[in-house]
Amino acid sequence: MLRKKNYLQVYHYGLTLDKEADWLSIDTCAEIHPELIQILADLGVIEIHQGYIKKDELSRLYKILRLRECLGLNYAGCAVVLDLLDRIEDLRAEIDRLKRLMQGR
């Protein structure tokens, strides 16, 4: 007989649930173990709240899995890579904004 395990969840975030539709149950991520999701939340790589994950965080989760599989990075390394990719995206957006501002002159 299989027994369902209950997993301890610790939250470090003061999240507001602005739209219920923006959150997915961790149970919908069938191929990802809940303990792994919790580890990543503890590292600050993703946000979870009462067993739910934001839809945009789900894409980060899959990026982490690809980085682990393709490059063999550990989870802390994945966090660094994702942070750098986010910073690059922010810088590109800032460059685009400045270009538009300069063209408007």
The proportion of residues in beta strands is: 5-15%
Overall, the morphology is elongated
Overall SS class: mainly alpha
How many helices? The count is: 3
Number of separate domains: 1
The helicity comes to 40-55%
Task: Tell me the distance between the termini.
Answer: 72 Å
Task: Give the gist of this structure.
This protein is mainly alpha-helical and 105 residues long. The protein is built from three helices and three strands; from the N terminus they run βαββαα.
Word description of this protein:
The chain is mainly alpha-helical. The protein has one domain (20-103). Helix content is 53%, strand content 8%. It is built from three helices and three strands. It has a three-stranded antiparallel β-sheet with strand order 1-3-2. Helix 2 packs across helix 3 (75-103). The longest helix is centred in the last third of the chain and has 29 residues, at 75-103. Residues 4-16 have low confidence and may be disordered.
Descriptors for this entry?
mainly alpha, three-stranded antiparallel β-sheet, 3 strands, 3 helices, 105 residues
What is the strand and helix layout of this fold?
Layout lengths: L22 E3 L8 H10 L4 E2 L2 E3 H17 L3 H29 L2
Antiparallel strand pairs: 1-3, 2-3
Helix pairs in contact: 2-3
